[in-house]
Every structure is written in C-alpha cells, then in structure tokens.
C-alpha cells in the first residue's frame, strides 16, 4: 500500500528503490517522499519540509501519523498526501531557486514596490472617479470581501461558511468566561481567541454594514505566522480550511465545560463539521477494523468521471493478491461512514507532483457532481445491500467487457495492422462483383488508370484476395489505403476519391472482375447479402445488450431505499490557473433567492447552475472545482424554514441579537462610511474646475467663446454646449436663411425667421425618419436629428433650433444679422417655466458625448487598421465605456455596441499576442515592455470587460488570453527569474481585483464640421466592411 502511494506521489516506478527509501525513513511516508524528491532533484531541500509541520499536524482526516502497516491502510495516508500537496511547490528546484533569488533581493526593492502599490487609489479606474454611492450596499444584497493581495482563498472559504446560518450563529455568539480568559496562558490559545474576536467583527460587518464589501485585513493579519506571508503568497484553500477548522475547534474547546479536556464530543465545531468512518480490511490474511474521525474528506480526481465514482474509489481499495488468490483471501479494504456531519466537505485532489519537471501540476480533467448526492450507499447501515449491489455491478461490468470485445471483433475485423468493420468489407465486395468492366478506354488512358489504381488502392484487392484478410504489403501506400478504407462509408465508391485530376475522359474506371458469369454473380451476391444481414443483426443485438447493461449499471443505486440520506450542494470553491498560481472564487446557493450567487472578492453577482457547471466541472478551461460543500437535508430544510422571511429581515434579526459591543462596532463603521461620503463629496466639489473634462467642459474648450465665469458654471456650460452645437450646424442654418430671401423682402424679418424655422425643422424631421445604413449615421449631421430620433421634449427641440438662428457666427449680411437679432429676442422671452434648463442641459450633454464616442470609435478603427493596437485599444475602450452610459438611456442614444465590442476584442487579442511574444523573448528590455503592456492595457481592459453582463465572445477571448499566459508556467526554457515574474502577473490576470492601473484618456480629436465627421464615418465603415466580414447588426 505504501509503495503504491509513493509511486503515485513521486512518479518513481522502481519498487526496490522505493522500498529502500521507506526502510531508510523507518516506514514514515513523509520522510520517504522528502528523501526521494531530494534525491531526484539532486539539490538539498534546505529543511523546507520541516519549516511548516503544521500543514499536516492536526489535520482533519486522521490526527496521528501511521505507526504500523495496519494504520498505513487507513485514510491517514490520504491526509499525508494532502500534506505533500502543500509542500510540493517547495520541493521544486525552480521554486527553491526563486526563493533564494527573492531572499537575495534588496529590501529596498520590496519596499519600493509596496510604495508604488499604495499610490494606487481604491476607486481609481480608467481615469474616472466613481461616485461614492457605487461602493454602497444595495438593499439586502450580500457583501463582497476586499482582496488585499492574493487573498482570494480567504474570501472564498469565509463567504461559504458565513452563508451557513448555524456556523454564523456559533461564531457571533462565541464568548468565554473571564476566568477562562485569565487562565489561558499559551500563545496558541491566545492567538485562537484573538482570531475568533476578529472573525466575530468581520461577520458582524457582513451582516449589518452599508458598504458593498468589507475589509478582512485584521483577521488576515493573525494568519501571517501560520501561512508565512499571507500578503505575498497565494494559499491553498483546503490547507487554509484545515487550519481554520483546527483553530475554531480549539477556540470552542475552551468554551465547552467538560471534565476531560480531550473529550470533543460536545464541541459545536466538531458536531457541525466532523464525522466518523469505519475501515475494514484484510492484509496478508489478517483482518483489521478501525474507526476514525474526518473533517474534509479527500477524493482523487484522476481516473473518475463524477463524484459518485470518486467516492466509490475512495471507499473500496485493493483487489485479489496473487500470492493469496489460491486461498480466496481478499487483499484490500472497505470504508463505511458511521456518522456524517451536518456540513460534509469534499476536498478534490486536483494537483499532482510531476517528477520529471520537479514541480506540482494541476489536473484539468472533467469531473461532474450533482446538486443532490445520496450518501446511503456509503453508510455502514447499508453495508449488506451495497455489497450485494457491488457484486452485481462487478458481474455486469465483466459481462459488458465480453460483449464489447465481441462487438469490437465485428467492427475491427482482420488479422493485420489495418482493420475495418466487417459489414462494410462485405459491402465493398458486393460493389466490386457488381461492377462491369470498362468497355472503351484507350491504351494510354487504361495504363494510366491501372497505374493510379495500383498505387492508390493495392490494399483493397489484397484484403479481399488474401486468406483471412491478411495484409502482406507494409509500405506507406498500404497505410494510406487503410486510412482511406477506414474513412469510407459503405455507400461510398472507394476508387472515386482517388481518381486523377483532369477532364472526365481522362478519369480512371472503377475496379471490376475480368470475367464473371451470371451464375457466379448470383451465388456470391446471395451469400454475401445473407452474411451481411446476419452480421448486422448480430451487431445490433450486441449494441442493444450493451445498452441494457449500461442502463442497469446506471440505475443500480437508484433504489428508493438508498435515497433516504440526501445532501444538498451548498457551495463550490473554484480555482482558476495552474498549480503554483491562480485565483479562487465561490459559488454559493442562496436559499431565499432560490438561485446561485458568485462570490468573487468584492463582487457578488447572480449566477446560474449552467455557469457553475462551466466554471467548476473542468475539462475545457483552466478553472475547476477544488472543494465541494454539501449540507444535510435537515440543515437545508432548516435554512429554508428560517429564510421564509426576506434575507434582509433575517439579517436584521441577527444584528439585533448581537452583543452590544458588536452592534456598536457596526454603527461606528456605518458612521465612518457616511463621513467618508461627506468628505468625498466635499473633495469632488472642490475639484470641479480641475476635474477630467465632462462633455460640457470639453465643449467649452472646443468652442470659440471664452471660458465661463466660475460663479455661473452651470448656466454657462448649457450656453456653451448649445452654442457649440449651433456652430457645428451653422452651414446648414445659413442655407435655410438664404432660402428666405422672398419672405424677407415681402413680409419682413419675423416672417423670414418663421419660414426658415419651419423649413429647417421639416428637413431635419424627414432626415430623422430615414432608415440608417452601416455607412451613414444622420445623427452626426445635426443635433436635432439626434433629439428627434430619441423623442426629446418638443420644448427642447424648439429652443435648440431657435438657438441655431441666434448664433453670432451667422453674421454674413444684413438679413442674417436681422434674423439673428430677432431670434435672440425670442430666446430672451422664453422663461424657466417654459423649458426645464436642467433637462435641456442633459440632452445637449448626451449629444456631445455621442459625438465624442463616434470620434473615439472612428479613431480607434483607423488605428487598428494601421496596426497601432496600443493606441487603438485606448480609444475603443473609452468609446465603449462612454457609449454604455448613453445606451442605458435608450438604444438610439449611442452607437452600435457590438461593433465597438468586436474591435475592442480583436485589438485586445492582437495586443496580447504582442505582449506574450515580447515576454517569451527573454530579452530584459522586451520582457519589461511586454509586462508593461499587460499591466497598463490588457489587465485593466480584461477586468473592465469581465462583468456580470459579459458576452460569450468576450468571455472566450479572455479565456484564450489567460490560457496563453498560464501555458508558460513550468516551461523549461524559462529561467526561475522569468517564472517568478510570471507568478507575480498571473494572480492579477486571473483575479478581478479593485487595484487596477489607471488608463489615461486618449488625446482629444475634434472634427472641423459635421460633414468632415460624416464623410470620415462613411469612409471607415466602408473600409472595415470591405476588408472583413464584419456586419453591423
């Protein structure tokens, strides 16, 4: 047993060598693993394995190391395996070299990095200052948790536990008598009590805070000693969960008033998370049995398709031993759960040690798991029934193997290297004998045809003419022919695919018998057809028998007697990345909402079972489940009953039931939030003149008028925007005035203004009703077309058009000046009751932003076509972000979102290729440039795209980019320094953190006239439609 485990852990298959290692280690599995990995790496481990014995001491499954061969057959060794998983990164020579490099680096570099990190503002994303309200909790929505540097593992575990009402109640209600506090002298005891107090504060905030997410820094601070540096090293979820449960168990043991300190039966943590199982087995003819305690139950993933197969493999080990087979003595063991905890946690072993590379690797194979698992088949009480079913299962599988072998003998017929379905071979012979020889073929063509057929299909005749279908030709042409036959259907003409090119007259004829009589033809045809029908019937019967056995195996445990102990899936902890770098998040079932929620650091979003399957099952991407948390049906019903009221109501009840000091702690934090909000508002109001240009202030800069007086910023900004839009349309307004010459001469200025006003309104109204085309967007021509298409209020439309005629830039002649003066007089008559100036301002701001989006889009597309991907991405990202704000108000407010998204995605993929190529060049300057592109552009853009409403195309693109970088992990052609840089990059690449580097807004570009913008729009759209298959939806 120990030899098998050593083989699995180390990859070394030499039994004598492994036996010597075990002997040298006095039977200690851990010592043997350390010895073997050190020997294989030929480099001293420098006591790395001894640096943290707590990784396996006091673990949840089996509290003692194996002392003899009997205990070696128990799951304690699986606990050792988990401990080895924790040490594996330390055993890698590359990891050791990286540690030495890190130790030799000057401390100043580290402090400088921290200093640079601290300069990033919490809300500073994409050059905008988000409103403080964006960081407020919305109603009763669960809160997220801040990632303070590779601490996603902490967030995933704590959120999963917090959403268990019983666990939450135990933590929040934890208290110790004063005499116990005073008598606690040990450092470990004091640390556990301090951690419990910090966890209480954290849980209290998660209940009652008004913030969108909480900061777990205080609790994490206490974990640094146990996990080296919680700030710089990403931790293993199962390792942390073990440590957490141990600490909580010890902390609650202080509060349990029992006579014997070693009796943990009354410990609420033990009652909630720990169960027992019985191990029964036979070893070398001797039977043994033992009851053990478990917390997280470890399961191997390799070689299994689903959770039930994993459990079956874990519960039954061993097979008939050759030495004892004659005595009919079983060699192996069975495990049976004797007591299941209310919270049942399965730890999926998705990491293995690659001995050749000297480092751990992640197992990406697919593993399915259900929303409800029935544990009856693994309980000791079901032992007799399950053993009967296992015997039946074994018999069915043996029968299945025989049937599949028989089916294969039909479907892979022959005795040579190339084998084919027997029914198809008979069909080919039928087609051959039924083919008539060619009648009129020239000698040259005939020879050419014969040559081609002899080269391309010698095997067809060989197979049919040789006894038993033996192929005697071994050259490459025979292999090509085998490929052809294997890929031909019975209805295909074998020679048709290998005819020479040329005119129809030059094509070769099909092979045919030289001479065959009608009597021979009928006899052979009759025999072949009968044999083929018989064989097809046999094949059909075999397939049906296999399907029936498969169904029996599938339904073997669907017995109602084995569905009495259901466990519902509560949480799934997911890991994305590779063995030594990645990101964790959790899917947790929300009982009140009857839906799955995704807890990803500060982000908590609504999810679905389909998304959970995609991210958790594995097999298709770098993300897969690492830990499954099931709860008993009793606990599930208790949660459902408790949550009949709203979650907010339940949380409010729990807040009111808190001790006074915790309620005060929540009130203080909420008071600080309000103070922060006031300070933020005050800071923003002081920054108005220096803020990033809004559409209003930008148009002020672009307008020909002088800057506004600071005392009337709002009024001046409205005037400036409307003046800007009037100036853009001045050529169109001038034409309207020119057409009023007759009215001006006959009826005066007011009549001319009225005529020009109505004619221009009619023209713009008709333009607004025209069907747009991909190459033409009428909204760019005039502000009123934009207003009319978006159903702006009539007062806004009329005032805007009147301002067109009041524009001072229309002072061309006496008639223009006169009309301008009358228009200005009429504007002064419009009072605040006639037009809502705030609404008027918003409409003009929207149009200004629309033009800005259009300019950014066009510039980004032009730069993309010129392969200037860095500059292009900046414009496209800003175009998309600003456009999203417009589309929230209506579909016609912005430009085509799918077009921006398409080219943003294309640009990002191109840029990622550039950055990756620079990184793998291994030249210091080029590597630095690649990292800079990744940090400054790619990562911020990916995080911005990766929101709740992300499209499948964007999600696939992000996955492609992440996979590209993950594929570099462990590459032998990359030195330790480059691997270390990669390790620093990956957590940010995989983790949607708040610390995103600011992307500077691109340079402003202003077209000279609407016609310039429209013609440019038409040219760019024509170009991209002509150069690619892009279609604007």
Terminal-residue CA separation = 63 Å
**CATH homologous superfamily designation of the domain at 271-318 and 329-391 and 561-638:** Cysteine proteinases
How many DSSP E strands? 16
- The level of helicity is 40-55%
Word description of this protein:
This protein has 1033 residues and is α+β, with helices and mostly antiparallel strands. Helices cover 55% and strands 10% of the residues. It has 39 helices and 16 strands. Helix 1 packs parallel to helix 3 (29-41) and helix 3 (29-41) runs parallel beside helix 4 (76-91). The protein is globular. This is ubiquitinyl hydrolase 1. Residues 143-633 form the USP domain. Residues 97-116 have a biased composition (Basic and acidic residues).
């Amino acid at each position: 047993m120990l030899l098998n485990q050593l083989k699995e852990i180390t990859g070394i298959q030499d039994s004598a060598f492994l036996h010597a290692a075990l002997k040298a280690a006095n039977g200690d599995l851990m010592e043997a693993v350390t010895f073997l990995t050190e020997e294989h790496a030929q480099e001293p481990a420098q006591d790395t394995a001894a640096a943290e014995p707590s990784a396996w001491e006091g673990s949840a499954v089996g509290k003692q190391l194996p002392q003899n061969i009997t205990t070696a057959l128990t799951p304690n060794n699986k606990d050792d395996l988990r401990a080895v998983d924790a040490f594996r990164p330390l055993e890698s020579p590359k990891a050791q070299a990286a540690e030495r490099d890190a130790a030799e680096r000057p401390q100043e570099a580290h402090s400088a990095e921290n200093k640079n990190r601290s300069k990033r503002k919490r809300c500073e994303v994409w050059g905008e200052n988000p409103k403080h309200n964006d960081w407020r909790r919305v109603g009763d929505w669960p809160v997220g948790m801040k990632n303070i540097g590779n601490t996603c593992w902490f967030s995933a575990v704590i959120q999963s536990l917090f959403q268990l009402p019983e666990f939450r109640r135990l933590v929040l209600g934890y208290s110790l008598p004063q005499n116990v506090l005073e008598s606690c002298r040990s450092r470990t005891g004091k640390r556990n009590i301090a951690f419990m107090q910090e966890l209480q504060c954290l849980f209290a905030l998660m209940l009652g805070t008004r913030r969108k997410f909480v900061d777990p820094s205080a609790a994490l601070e206490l974990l640094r000693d146990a996990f080296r540096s919680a700030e710089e090293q990403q931790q293993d979820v199962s390792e942390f969960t073990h440590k957490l449960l141990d600490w909580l168990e010890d902390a609650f043991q202080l509060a349990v008033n029992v006579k014997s300190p070693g009796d943990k039966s009354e410990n609420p943590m033990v009652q909630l998370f720990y169960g027992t199982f019985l191990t029964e087995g036979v070893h070398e003819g001797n039977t043994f049995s033992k009851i053990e305690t478990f917390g997280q139950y470890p399961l191997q993933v390799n070689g299994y398709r689903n959770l039930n197969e994993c459990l079956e493999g874990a519960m039954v080990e061993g097979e008939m031993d050759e030495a004892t087979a004659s005595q009919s003595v079983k060699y192996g063991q069975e495990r049976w759960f004797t007591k299941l905890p209310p919270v049942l946690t399965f730890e999926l072993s998705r990491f293995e040690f690659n001995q050749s590379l000297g480092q751990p690797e992640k197992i990406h194979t697919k593993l399915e798991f259900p929303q409800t698992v029935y544990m009856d088949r693994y309980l000791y009480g079901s032992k007799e029934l399950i053993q009967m079913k296992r015997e039946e299962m074994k018999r069915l599988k043996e029968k299945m193997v025989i049937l599949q072998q028989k089916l294969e003998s039909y479907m892979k017929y022959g005795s040579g290297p190339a084998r084919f379905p027997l029914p198809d071979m008979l069909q080919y012979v039928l087609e051959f004998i039924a083919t008539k020889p060619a009648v009129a073929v020239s000698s040259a063509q005939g020879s050419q045809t014969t040559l081609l057929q002899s080269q391309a299909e010698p095997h067809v005749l060989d197979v049919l003419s040789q006894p038993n279908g033996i192929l005697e030709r071994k050259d490459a042409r025979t292999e090509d022919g085998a490929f052809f036959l294997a890929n031909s259907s019975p209805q295909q003409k074998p020679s048709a695919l290998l005819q020479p090119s040329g005119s129809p007259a030059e094509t070769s004829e099909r092979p045919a018998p030289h001479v065959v009589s009608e009597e021979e033809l009928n006899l052979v045809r009759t025999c072949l057809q009968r044999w083929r029908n018989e064989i097809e019937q046999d094949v059909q019967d075999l397939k049906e028998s296999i399907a029936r056995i498969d169904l029996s195996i599938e339904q073997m445990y669907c017995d109602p007697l084995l569905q009495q102990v259901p466990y519902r899936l509560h949480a799934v902890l997911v890991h994305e990345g590779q063995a030594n770098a990645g990101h964790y998040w959790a899917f947790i079932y929300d009982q009140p909402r009857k839906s799955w929620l995704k807890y990803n650091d500060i982000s908590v979003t609504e999810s679905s079972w389909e998304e959970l399957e995609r991210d958790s099952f594995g097999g298709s991407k770098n993300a897969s489940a690492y830990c499954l948390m099931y709860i008993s049906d009793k606990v599930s019903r208790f949660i459902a009953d408790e949550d009949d009221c709203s979650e907010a109501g339940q949380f409010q009840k729990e807040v009111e039931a808190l001790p006074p000091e915790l309620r005060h702690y929540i009130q203080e934090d909420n008071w600080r939030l309000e103070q922060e909000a006031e300070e933020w508002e005050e800071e923003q109001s002081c920054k108005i003149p220096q803020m990033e240009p809004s559409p209003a202030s930008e148009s002020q800069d672009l307008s020909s008028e002088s800057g506004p007086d600071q005392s009337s910023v709002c009024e001046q900004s409205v005037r400036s925007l409307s003046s800007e839009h009037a100036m853009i349309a001045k050529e169109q307004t001038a034409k309207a005035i020119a057409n009023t010459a007759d009215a001006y001469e006959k009826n005066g200025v007011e009549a001319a203004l009225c005529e020009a006003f109505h004619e221009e309104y009619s023209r713009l109204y008709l333009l607004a009703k025209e069907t747009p085309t991909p190459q033409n967007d009428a909204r760019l021509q005039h502000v009123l077309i934009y207003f009319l298409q978006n159903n702006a209020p009539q007062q806004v439309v009329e005032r805007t058009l009147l301002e067109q005629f009041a524009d001072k830039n229309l002072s061309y002649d006496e008639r223009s000046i006169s009309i301008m003066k009358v228009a200005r007089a009429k504007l002064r008559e419009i009072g605040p009751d006639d037009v809502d100036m705030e609404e008027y301002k918003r409409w003009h701001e929207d149009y200004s932003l629309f033009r800005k989006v259009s300019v950014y889009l066009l510039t980004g597309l032009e730069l993309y076509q010129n392969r200037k991907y860095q500059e292009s991405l900046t414009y496209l990202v800003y175009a998309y972000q600003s456009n999203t704000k417009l589309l929230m108000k209506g579909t016609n407010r912005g430009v085509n979102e799918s077009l921006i998204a398409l080219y943003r995605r294309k640009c990002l993929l191109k840029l990622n290729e550039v950055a990756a190529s620079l990184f793998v060049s291994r030249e210091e300057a080029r590597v630095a440039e690649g990292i800079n592109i990744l940090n400054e552009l790619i990562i911020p853009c990916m995080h911005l795209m990766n929101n709740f409403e992300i499209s499948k195309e964007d999600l696939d693109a992000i996955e492609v980019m992440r996979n590209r970088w993950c594929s570099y992990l462990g590459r032998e052609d990359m030195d330790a320094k480059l691997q270390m840089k990669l390790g620093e990059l990956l957590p940010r690449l995989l983790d949607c953190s708040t610390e995103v580097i600011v992307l500077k807004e691109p340079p402003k570009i202003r077209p000279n006239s609407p016609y310039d913008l429209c013609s440019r729009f038409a040219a760019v759209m024509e170009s991209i439609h002509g150069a690619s298959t892009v279609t604007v939806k």
